[in-house]
Each structure stands twice: as structure tokens, then as C-alpha cells.
Amino acid sequence: METGRQQMLAPRHDLPMNRRTFLGVAAGLTLADAGAQTRSSIPVIDTHIHLYDPSRPQGVPWPNKENKILYQTSLPPRYRKIVEPLGIVGAIEVECSPWLEDNQWVLDIAQDDTIMVGTVGRLVPGTSEFRPNLERFHKNPLYRGIRYGLGRQAGKEFDRPEFVADLKALADADLVLDTANPSVALLADVVRVSDRVPNLRVIIDHLPQMLRPAESAAQASYDVSMKAFRDRPQIYVKVSEVLRRVGEQIPVDVEFYRPRLDEVLDVFGIDRVLYGSDWPNGDQWLPVPAGFKIVQEYFMGKGQAAAEKYFWRNSTRAYKWVKRTAAQPQA
């Protein structure tokens, strides 16, 4: 999750809960829903988690101390306890820190715990430091790509040859580009990326949280981008951050989310959707089991083969992650 979450253009009803509401709903979930949680019969690769430790001497750039839900140590041992009962056997970290050396810090953390099958770092294309640092970090096979915040410069980055050249270097290294939080401008930039660097695998994060915009010009841009995505097999999407807040409630019925999930699946198809929990950032809505239960019910309803693609098979093509234990599947 990036610092300074971008606002969507449509009216939103999915703002994070305060701590009191979180604890109340989480307690209700434990009593009402945890017993109904079914361990996945399919091995699951979680393609979106964050790792950080506020107790480090240098602290962390995100989250801030005021966020009582997120400002706590979030490392693989804590994550394991939450997800292993669900059948999640591997995870890919997506970097939330802009500090260069945190690329190495996460690699070191991931190396020590076999539930971690990859990391997505944080480097800035178009800078003199990009190539040497990409080469440095990519020496570790767990380094599977970078996350970059498209959509902030109205496409101006693409006028700089060095920016496009660095994206081509990323593609030549067989690494991915993860996007930041979706917006109309970001989606348009994803189309620009695929026009300029057709062989670069691009992964759009958290698209279910972005509803179709209300303003007509934004709608037109959104529709153009979504139409373009239909025929670009190198562009994947994470069906992550599915949960939304409506008034004082966060629905936990799959039927509430089905229309948006259907829209995403209609555009990208079953071969380009990925599971991501967004742990621990997603805890601002509900704990991981709540969101997992919704997507589990939705995709298992599409049949075993479709669910396998969503929960792990597609991630092997998108990230080419590193298998580290016998429990982790292999295509």
C-alpha cells in the first residue's frame, strides 16, 4: 500500500474503519464466520503482502504511529499464523517503502522464511541509479520486479527516452512492473507502458477497489483503458482489496461484490487474475479470512480449474516466483 492513498473519482463508501469499529467487526467475524471458513483445497499463493518492522532503529516510512491497526511488526512469522489455516502456502511481498536499502532488507527477511516466494522492490525508472540497483537486487532470484506509481505525471514520463529504456531493461531481465493504487490516470499509463514495451509483464494492483468513475471524461478514459486490456495478455490484475465499507458496515456476502468481480473477470479473463490479501493493510477493513472467504466462494463457483488459475497457476506465469517448499505448487 502506498503512502497517501489515491482517491477514486467515484463517490466512495470503502474508507478504512477506525480501531473501535475494526475490533468490533473482527470480533463478530470470529464468532460468526471463522467457524464457517473452509481451508482451501487448492494451494494458494498470495501475491500481495507488505513486510515492515517499526521497531527497527531507523523506523519505517509507512505506516505512521497514529495508525494503531497497522503500526506493529509485520513479518513472516506473524503472517504464517494467520494464513496457514486458510491453505496459503506462499507469498510475494510488494514494497511499501521508498528507502533504497529496504529493497535489501526485505530480501534478507524473505530469504530466512520459506513461505516467501518472491519480493517486488521499489526503484524509480529513468534515474541514473536504476540500472545498477536493478542488477544488484536481481542477483537474488527472489527479486521478481518493481512497483512504480504510474498515473501521477499525466504520461510525461514516457516522453523521456531513459524512462522507457529502463522499463525495457526490466522486461529484458524477465521481471514485472507492479502498479500502485488504481486511478483513471494510472490505467491510461498502463496502456502506454504496454504500447512502448509490449513484452513487459504489468500487474495492476487492487482494481476491485476502483469503481467506474462518475465524471463523463473520466468514464471515457476508463472505458478506453479497459477495452485495451482485453487483448493484452501481458497485463494481469490482482483481485485484491475486494472489501468495501458501506456506511458503518462492511458486507461479507459474496453477492454484494459479485457485480464488480464479474466486471473485472469479463475484461481480463480467468488467465490473468491473481489472488492478493494486501496483508496487513487490508486489516483496516477486515482480517484476511473475511476477504479470502469471499474470493474463495466466488472463484470456486467457477470450477476447480478456474480457481486453480486464480489462486496459484496464473501467479507462476506473472511472477515466475521461486518454489521453496514441497507444499508450494509448480506448473
- Largest sheet composition: 8 strands, parallel
Predict the CATH topology.
TIM Barrel
| Second CATH tier, the architecture | Alpha-Beta Barrel
CATH class annotation: Alpha Beta
Across the major sheet, the strand order is: 1-2-3-4-5-6-7-8
What is the β-strand count? 8
**Helix/strand-derived class?**
alpha/beta
Detail the poorly predicted runs: 1-35
Strand fraction equals 5-15%
For the record, what is the CATH homologous superfamily label?
A: Metal-dependent hydrolases
Chain-averaged pLDDT: 89
Give the % helix.
25-40%
Number of helices, where a helix is a run of at least 4 consecutive DSSP H or I residues: 10
Envelope shape: globular
What's the N-to-C terminus distance? Answer: 29 Å
Q: Please tell me the total number of domains.
A: 1
Task: Describe how the helices and strands are arranged.
Layout: H1 19-32, E1 44-49, H2 76-83, E2 88-94, H3 102-111, E3 116-121, H4 130-138, E4 143-148, H5 161-172, E5 176-179, H6 184-196, E6 201-204, H7 216-229, E7 235-239, H8 254-268, E8 273-275, H9 288-300, H10 304-319
Parallel strand pairs: 1-2, 2-3, 3-4, 4-5, 5-6, 6-7, 7-8
Helix pairs in contact: 6-7, 8-9
